[in-house]
């Protein structure tokens, strides 16, 4: 299962890197979402930055950490870290749904990745010795 977690963590790094690229690309004056699916609007909103650091950077670091923890068989730490990642991803998804009213396809992909990592990491704790 650890190899699956590592592959999923790499997918998360890719998704987070794409959102970071979107954050820094294009017109900074775009303030109105063009549709209910607008990744650029979400990734340039005020919610896409925490303390001056784009949220995507936290994603890249977090997925890298999850991959390394899984690689080095730190099962309990992987499970705990995945829960923090899942909680933050759910918080951001709530903002998309109830504050911005706009969805980012890459953010939802990242949510699916962190859900799978959390399930696998807890599966490791339960089923592997």
Give a short synopsis of this structure:
With 129 residues, the protein is mostly helical.
Task: Name the features.
single chain; 2 strands; mainly alpha; 73% helix; elongated; 3% strand
Topology:
Layout: H1 2-24, H2 39-43, E1 49-50, E2 53-54, H3 55-71, H4 75-100, H5 105-127
Antiparallel strand pairs: 1-2
Helix pairs in contact: 1-3, 1-5, 3-4, 4-5
Which word captures the global form?
elongated
Q: For the record, what CATH class applies?
A: Mainly Alpha
Question: Alpha-carbon distance between the termini?
Answer: 12 Å
What is the level-2 CATH architecture name?
Up-down Bundle
Q: Strand order, main sheet: write it out.
A: 1-2
Instruction: Kindly report the CATH topology.
Output: de novo design (two linked rop proteins)
Count of distinct strands: 2
Give the biggest sheet: 2 strands, antiparallel
Describe the structure.
This protein has 129 residues and is mainly α. The chain has one domain (2-27, 35-127): Up-down Bundle (de novo design (two linked rop proteins)), CATH 1.20.1440. 73% of the residues lie in helices and 3% in strands. It has helices at 2-24, 39-43, 55-71, 75-100, 105-127; strands spanning 49-50, 53-54. A two-stranded antiparallel ribbon has the order 1-2. Strand 1 and strand 2 form a beta hairpin. The two termini are 12 Å apart. The relative contact order is 0.20. The model has no long low-confidence stretch (mean pLDDT 94).
